[in-house]
Amino acid sequence: MDIKSLQQSFKTAFCYLLISTGILLGITPAYSEPALKSVPKPPIINITPKWTERYLFKNAPELVRNTHLDHVLSFYYFGRYEEFTVMGMERVKGDDYHQHNTVLIFKDAELKGYYEELQVFPSKITKEGVIEFPANNDVEDNINLKEGYYPAMVFSRDKKLNPDSHAVSEIQWVNI
Question: Which residue in 103, 100, 159, 99 sits closest to 131, CA to CA?
Fold first, then answer.
C-alpha cells in the first residue's frame, strides 16, 4: 500500500467520522432545517443566593436596609421557569426574633419585582409557571410567571379567620 492510497483512506474515514458525529450531535448543514425548532435560551447568569445578596445591596438597597442589625439574613433559591428565577430572602430581627420573608422574582438577571412580608415561602413552581404555596398556607390566587400575573397575596387561612376583612394578610406585588 503506497502513501497516496493510505492518505485517501484516512480522508474517507475522517469524512465518515465528521458526518456521523454531526448526526449524533444534531448538527445539520446551513442550507437545511435546524435540528431543533426552539432551543430554550440559557440564563444570562446563574442566579444564586450569594449573587442575589450582592445584587440587592447594589441595585435595591431599600430591601436590605439595616441588615447589619438582623439576627439572620438568608437567601434561598426556589427554582426557575424559562427566563424567570424565584428567590427568597429571610430576615430575622427584633427582640422577638420575628421572621420577615420576601419573595424576589428575577427575569434574566434583573429584579422584576417582589412580595414583602409573606407568611411562608413558595413550595414549588409548576411546569406551567405557576408559583404555589404549601397547602396549609394556600393563597387565594397564585402568581403565574407565564402569564405575567402577579396578584395580591391573600392567604386562605387568614381569610377564613377574618371573613369580613382580610386586608391584614393582603400583600401587594411591588414592581421594579
Answer: 103
pLDDT, tens digit (0-9, with 9 covering 90-100), for 81-133: 999 999 999 988 888 888 889 999 999 999 999 999 888 899 999 999 999 98
Q: Greatest CA span in the chain, whole angstroms?
A: 96
**Do β-strands 110-118 and 98-107 pair in parallel, antiparallel, or remain unpaired?**
antiparallel
DSSP per residue, 36-78:
-S--PPPPSS---HHHHHHHHHHH-GGGGTTGGG-SEEEEEEE
pTM to 2 decimal places: 0.67
The one-letter code for the residue type at 93 is: K
Measured distance CA(41)–CA(141) in Å, rounded? 29
User: What one-character DSSP code corresponds to residue 10?
Assistant: H
HSE-up (13 A, CA, CB side) for residue 13: 6
Residues 6+ apart with CB under 8 A from 97: 71
